[in-house]
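Comment thread on ticket #2218

A.B. wrote:
> Attaching the input chain for the structure job we discussed in standup.
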Amino acid sequence: MAPKNALRRLWPADVQLRVLIVVFLVVLVGLSACEPGTFLRLANFTSMGLQISDLGVLALAMMLAMILAGVDLSVVAVANLSAVLAAKAMAAAAAAGAGDGVITVLGVVAALVAGAAAGMTNGLVIGALRVPPILATLATMTLWGGVATVLTNGVSISGQSVALQTLGTQAFALIPVPTLILIICVVAVWVLLNRSSLGVRAYLLGANSRASLFSGVNNAKVTVAVYTTSGLLAGVAGLINVARTNSANPSYGASYLLLTILIAVLGGVSVTGGSGRVAGVVLALVTLQMLSTGFNMILVGTGDSNFFKNFAWGLLLLAVVSGSRISLQRFRRRARGAGERSASPDPEKVAAGEGRS
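C.D. wrote:
> Ran it. Output below, let me know if you need it in another format.
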């Protein structure tokens, strides 16, 4: 019985997380069986880890906004603006004859400050001015995209940092540095949501803003803090982009916005706010990337990989959402049945006269 009890403790109580784990294992085993010689190679997993690095950080940023019962449509635009400002700062420092270390530090600081400032702007507009998140971030998405386009005239600009470019292509213990940055962001967001007062307040605000206010929480401050963190993560994503490509483009990652929402929803983040797990977002991210890579391998040369990839992503979302709903309904029926059994008197006791009040 001990091994069974240990397995039960390891098996998560969250229904959505359970379904995601099952789907992840099915996809992993299925693609491994279809492409055993290529899919299971270490180089393939390294490549997948590199590909999800910036998208994963953006998905975490979207997750934070959705936990507040909001959305951040500007995450990709903030990432691109951060990348452009980082590249501009590094180019200016290189033109002034600064060393590569100074150039790199300036680029990192520019990207992070730009991301945090853009996120804080979103938070102030939403929290202080009480503009609906979808309208506020739609406006700032257009604003930041326009600023980035004006700064670059719509073309890519070079990052000018040898050290940053080296970090973007190097690996540590067989793990690409951009993937390590993603792992650090995952851990940081988990700590923020599960081990800090800001995380508790964010969940409370997302679940019920009125109850949060009556509990003494300053909703505006929480909103500003969470959206600032979201913007900071977008700045990190922009920095990863510059490190990987040594360039910045105001239109990079045009399809990433819908993908970040898809990953967050697939990972169990409620669109009505108040719930969501980092583990679920990570599982959804990895599963989607495995599907994308697997279909590219299976359908290479046919030209149909993108079509089947999108089809598989949509089918996966439907499967996970439907599976979670069915599992939740079964759990509720079992709980209701157990409650009814505990409420009804024992027939033997009734016969003995012990069931009378």
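A.B. wrote:
> Thanks. Noting for the ticket: The mean pLDDT is 86.
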